[in-house]
Amino acid sequence: MKKLASGAALAIIAMLMAACGNDAGGNAGNAEGSGNSANSAAPAKTEQAEPATFKKLGDEPLTLTFYNTSGTFPDTEFKTLIADPIKKKYPNVTIERITTAAETTAEEVLSTHTPDIIYSSSSSHQKIIRTGAYEDLRELIERHHFDTSRIKPILFDYITEITKGKGDQIYAIPFNANQHVLYYNKDIFDKFGVDYPTDQQLTWDQVLEIAQKLTRTENGVHYIGLSVDNLTGLAKGLGLPYVDRETGNAALDTPEWLRIFELNKRIFEIPGYVTPDGTWNWGRDQFMKDQVVAMRVTWLANMVGPLEELRQQGVEFNWDIAPAPNFEDQLGKTREAQIHSLSVNSQSKHKDEAFQVIAEILSDDGQRILARNGRVPAVINPELEKEYGLDIPVLQGKSVQNVFIGTPLQEHYIHPYELEIGSRLTEAAEDLAVKGLDVNSAIRKATDAINKDVETLRTTLGQQ
To answer: How far is Cα 77 from Cα 410, in angstroms, rounded to an integer?
Structure first.
């Protein structure tokens, strides 16, 4: 493969192309629709020609490898959103996915493979930072004139927050905003003669009233009115951290967390919600495959791609989307928007090419493909939201504009200890659901367990 041109050579080539009247063609650096955010880490790119590197490659083949460290990203979405669009625009470039056994950890994969592009969600950013696999993108952003001000502030600000005061590296570029909605099964509502959720955001009190009507057993089938991802999901409506950023200790002893524990307790106390055999944790499979959950509040990406794959397998049912509910005094806000991001491997031999692939995916053209296939764009361009879901069959006829009702919150700072202590919140939910603990006792028990874990983590991970 031919060597990449130097930064100076790239600039000269771009200037010559611009002088010859070449069109910017929706390049990721195009400032159109960028807004006035002050989060730009590099000069804004305007009237820039298509990446000179790809033009220099000509027909010479290049394969870049791709690995997903966390987050739901089915093969259908990988092909539709990344592999196929890049192949269409640059026929000589192939994006090849690294797939491993389900039980293999991201750390194990990155110790034996060198994917050029790393896809992550905020649930794995800190973990991957510890491996050293993320390249600091600041130099690549500057060299390729990537305009970060085009990215929605709640997404890019989260990325910069990860390393604030610790070197201020930029390890990732937001790929999409993984927002929350309320999915509901119309067939279950119809079966029991209950009105569907409205297109207006409901309060938790209103949703629980509906859930009580739909939690019942009929002809031997046990239906559950509501699934909310329990304490961790509910806490996202208030943007709550699990541990204190400064001390690393448990952050559950607050009025906000008390409110979350009390709400989850109310859900568990709906008659029939916890089954006689102690089943209490209802999720995606029960909504999508078993089709016994009437409403589920969760991330878009957790459901849209899998529902489309299920449709392709011939399994369909009558469901729709409503805005994510919240407390009455929080209406107008939904839950935290989880960050799904793209990064360059620090050990890649093709860093420039990998970054230019990322830049293409972040172009308006690339983000339009995301929007039309059920992902909320990372860039500021309201016109793309109008096209949301148009190209993915499973969203046809759905109330997709309900995705954009309510303002998503910026995701709370994910402390390096948070992933390791997340199981304590699952245990706390179980204590509320089946072990009869009151909310104050459950909070105290979880706090003690987290603080003990933190002492161990300070030894294994180091003082954070």
So the answer is: 24
